């Protein structure tokens, strides 16, 4: 099965003036770490200064929307607003309806946060049926979607600044 990235990028974006937040869940640790690294590496490749990449964690994906809002407000108060935030989580289906409820609630709330916070909040959540599917999408055998999320953050923050 082909797993693609962002597709053709319309131009090279310069992230050197940006401050970007990465907020990640701690469930599915190895996969999360690879996604965070993929996003971080892409941000620096596009010019974002390492000191302007803020990485924080929360317990699980359910906490991502509230954590993202808090992170955004914290840096607003510090006078160092974040230009975009990448919430990163990995949800893997189990044997109950837990997965469906969390995927639905988290994805809708992350979408809403874009408008509430009026800044790009990237959808950095893998919603997979198996551990293997998640690994394939996290650069542990296949393409690392974290890199796409980093690129999307820089493009969105630059284009609409
Ligand atoms: C409880 C739970 C389960 C079963 N599975 C996952 C998962 O696959 N990925 C993830 O990020 N978090 C999971 N969690 C934890 C919830 O997201 C949340 O942290 C707890 O329910 C506490 O609110």
TrEMBL record:
EC identifiers of the protein: 2.5.1.78
Catalytic activity: (2S)-2-hydroxy-3-oxobutyl phosphate + 5-amino-6-(D-ribitylamino)uracil = 6,7-dimethyl-8-(1-D-ribityl)lumazine + phosphate + 2 H2O + H(+)
Pathway: Cofactor biosynthesis; riboflavin biosynthesis; riboflavin from 2-hydroxy-3-oxobutyl phosphate and 5-amino-6-(D-ribitylamino)uracil: step 1/2
Keywords: Riboflavin biosynthesis, Transferase
A GO BP annotation: riboflavin biosynthetic process
Key word Transmembrane helix present: no
Family annotation (InterPro entries): LS (IPR034964), LS/RS (IPR002180), LS/RS_sf (IPR036467)
GO molecular function: 6,7-dimethyl-8-ribityllumazine synthase activity
Pfam families: DMRL_synthase (PF00885)
GO terms for cellular component: mitochondrial intermembrane space; riboflavin synthase complex
Domain of life, per lineage: Eukaryota
Coiled coil region boundaries: none
Matches recorded under HAMAP family: Lumazine_synth
Assembly notes: Homopentamer.
Function: Catalyzes the formation of 6,7-dimethyl-8-ribityllumazine by condensation of 5-amino-6-(D-ribitylamino)uracil with 3,4-dihydroxy-2-butanone 4-phosphate. This is the penultimate step in the biosynthesis of riboflavin.
Entry's family note: Belongs to the DMRL synthase family.
Name listed for the protein in its UniProt record: 6,7-dimethyl-8-ribityllumazine synthase
């Amino acid at each position: 099965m082909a797993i693609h990235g962002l597709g053709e990028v319309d131009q090279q974006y310069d992230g050197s003036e940006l401050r970007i937040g990465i907020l990640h869940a701690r469930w599915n640790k190895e996969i999360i770490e690879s996604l965070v690294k993929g996003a971080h590496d892409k941000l620096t490749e596009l010019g974002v200064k390492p000191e302007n990449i803020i990485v924080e964690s929360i317990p699980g994906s359910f906490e991502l929307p509230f954590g993202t809002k808090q992170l955004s407000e914290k840096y607003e108060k510090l006078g160092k607003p974040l230009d975009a935030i990448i919430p990163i989580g990995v949800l893997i289906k189990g044997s109950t309806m837990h997965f469906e409820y969390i995927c639905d609630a988290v994805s809708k709330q992350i979408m809403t946060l874009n408008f509430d916070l009026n800044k790009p909040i990237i959808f950095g959540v893998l919603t997979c049926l198996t551990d293997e599917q998640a690994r394939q999408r996290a650069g542990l055998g296949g393409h690392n979607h974290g890199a796409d999320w980093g690129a999307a953050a820089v493009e969105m923050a630059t284009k609409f600044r």
